[in-house]
From TrEMBL:
It holds the Pfam family RVT_3. Residues 65-184 form the RNase H type-1 domain. GO terms for molecular function: nucleic acid binding; RNA-DNA hybrid ribonuclease activity. It comes from Trema orientale. This is Ribonuclease H-like domain containing protein.
Amino acid sequence: MATLITKAIWKERNSVIHGGFPSQIETMVRSIQATFNAYNLALSCNQAAHQTCWEPPPSPWIKINVDAAVRTTEAAGTAVVRDHLGRILAMKTELFHNPEPVIAEANAMLLGLQLARDNHWSSVVIESECLTLVNGWNGCSEVPWHSDHIFPQMHDIAPHFSNLVINYVSRVCNYFAHNLVAWAYARSSFGDLALTEVPESVCQDHTQWTP
């Protein structure tokens, strides 16, 4: 926290020296606190590879699990939104016309971001099974060329959030999203979904749904 405060003061000093208007102290405190919260969440997200099941985000964050399913000529993606109590806030599925797996996974991540933006959620965690894309987003590796037209759209949406973390999880932490996209494909059910439309056997965190 001390480092963040020092950095904020130094940034404010430089801004004023170069002709900027001084910020209100309350604005600076909120900004420092938001950065600190995001940093702590990012640290916890680094442990996601060791998770053995889905875990809720800290309040007031929301978590969006995404996944994609690929067929011969098309693909589908899904986004499942839950809060710190595990309550389902939204579910959405979408049909994609490009069956390339990495593009489908990137489109699913974009779907999650669009859903968060449209619902005005400010602190968002996106969880995906596609480590290649997650590493590309977080600057740990090159962005896959398959998805280099999708990442700019994601970056355009990112400023809508106060805090955004995109994180990798394994399948055992992503069953709900995995189940939902498989079910939606089997039923040709795409768009915004109500909980009453989806069977309980699909809405599971510990088991995989089979048709």
